[in-house]
Amino acid sequence: MTLEDLLLRLDRIAGGRQAGVLISPEHRAHPRTRRAFTWIMWLLVAELVLGAAAVVFAVAQAAAGESVPFAVWMRTFIVFAMTVTLFYFAWRAARGWRWAYLRLRLFSQIFPVITLVMAAIPGLYPAWMVTEQIVFSLIMIGVADFLTSDHMRMAFAAPKDGEAGDTPA
């Protein structure tokens, strides 16, 4: 069993009935598609760096004897897990899998809302974590902006009735 076979099994779980839909090679290779995914990957790297900085800051505070609320530890863990998942979706979407594009677009639109709502709850997070959440949300909005462009929505459009989309090679 190759790595790609294993990933296709994971895709079936994550992608549901869209798991086998691959966009056309022309759309995958289009310069605007490739440029969008290059930017998306860099924005996700920024998210990862931001999350790592939050972990380092929380650990430094705890090491200095300051109290770090449980909500901060949960937030840092969730951000790392989320970011890894988003990297997987972005990687698979860049390879043309429609399901991954749809998941990435959905989460990049929902996560900023959730994050900003959580940041607005008085006393839940310290000020530095609220700031981190606002920056996180702004970066995710940037990811969503690339994914909802006219070109990307056209490239990853649902196959028309009777079409199954491309199948993996």
Indicate the structural class.
mainly alpha
Low-confidence sequence ranges: none
Bin the strand percentage. under 5%
**Sheet with the most strands?**
none
Q: Helix amount, in percent?
A: over 70%
* Shape summary: elongated
Q: What is the H-and-E element order?
A: HHHHHHH
Distance between the termini: 16 Å
- The value of Rg in angstroms is 18 Å
Walk me through the structure.
It contains seven helices and no strands. By secondary structure, it is mainly α. It has a domain at 41-155. Helix 3 packs antiparallel against helix 4, helix 4 runs antiparallel to helix 5 and helix 5 runs antiparallel to helix 6 (127-147). The two termini are 16 Å apart.
Q: Which features characterize this protein?
A:
elongated, mainly alpha, 169 residues
Write a brief caption for the model.
The longest helix has 33 residues, at 31-63.
Secondary-structure blueprint:
Blueprint lengths: L2 H13 L9 H5 L1 H33 L6 H25 L3 H22 L7 H21 L2 H6 L14
